[in-house]
Amino acid sequence: MHPSYLVLILAIIFISQEKKGQLPSPPVSAGSRYPNLLVENNHLAMTWFEANETEKRLLFSEMKNGEWIAPTTIASSKNFFMNWADFPSLYSLGGDTLAVHYLEKGGSGTYDYNVKISFSYNHGKNWSNGIIVHKDSSHGEHGFVSFYRTKENTHGMVWLDGRFMAPESEEETSHDEHGGGSMHLYSTSFSAKTFERNEIILDNRVCECCPTSSLQTENGVLIAYRDRSEDEVRNINILRHENGNSPDSRAGWSEPKPIHDDKWKIPGCPVNGPTLVGEGKNVACVWYTAPDNSPEVRIAFSSDEGKNFSSPIRVDDSLSLGRVHAVWLDDGSVLVSWLEQVEQITELRIRKIYSDGRKTQSKTISEIDASRGSGYPKMAKFTGKIFIVWTQPGKETSVETKWIEMEDVRREK
After folding, report:
1. Per-residue DSSP letters for 159-210?
2. Calpha distance 407→308 (Å, rounded)
3. Dihedral sign computed on CA atoms, order 187, 255, 226, 324
4. Nearest to 392 by CA among 407, 375, 408
5. Do 113 and 142 touch, CB atoms closer than 8 A?
6. What is the mean pLDDT of the chain?
7. Given CB 3.0 to 4.6 Å as the disulfide criterion, which of 141, 259, 284, 306 pairs with 111?
């Protein structure tokens, strides 16, 4: 064989091996924003908005055989409530049945919007018309949804509900203010076709606009959210549902208690929610706090399904903006993402944390816009890699993505 042919063959093999380890980006377009991810039964799926001057669409795609399929439209509406911190989420009911929640305006007020849910019975090829989840029709805020599943395979969801904050008249809803009552945390269970079950109040005074989080443990369900005390201390609370009890009865849920008393007193909502991750009886919660104007990202671990948590471990390096997410890894550690302020720029960073306090070196994924337009970055573990998504705001807002090799997050401090 001529030497030049041998060189060409070796080059082709090298390039193909390089490409084999790479995975593609999802099929997003200009105007895309606020992505969210779901990994279920070796499927990676994503939802996101695309918006221009004439149209707003909520889209779905999933990765099959190493490629993203063409997007399908879940819903289109001129009245979507597209919020940087409160955006759609995907949930699998098992088999080919998927659910997605989204928000849609119910009136002219700034905070007048409803939670809707659509179902797909063929794994995202087609979607049902959206139905309103909650029973009240007040001109109030409803959002920050987290889905959950009990061990008995009952499907449920929690959300922040502002029906007791709703202004008394339609005129009042035009002002960029909440009403005078308290935000509540609600829950209901559902099937793939109905929301006729009981809705219950889990907490009657919570922070107004911090995302919630849920986790199925070995024997129950955990819900994490930011509480609001009468004197404006805003700790992260945990609620437990014990299996064998109905999730549609308040008696089936524990009383809320803080994961840690941060003593962070703040008169307004910081729009920074917690993330729960875990496996079996082992659980971790990640959250942002800033007592005494000292911002931190913290993590606490539990080995008894959230009944007790360890003392918090600091995650960030120096000056965090929060917006945390996390992934539970096979070695029992937790990979955390957050936004870090570094002089005049902001970076999206990740770091592994172990329950004994060990940490890896933080890794900068990208420079990121510190404004609300960048949304909440999300991560997923898939095929031995970490997939990270976020929004890049600008004249042509777009979803940005990055695949990270696990080897890149294993180096300890």
Report:
1. EEE-TTT--SSTGGGGSSS--SS-EEEEEEEE-SS---S-EEEEEEEE-SS-
2. 32
3. negative
4. 375
5. yes
6. 90
7. 141
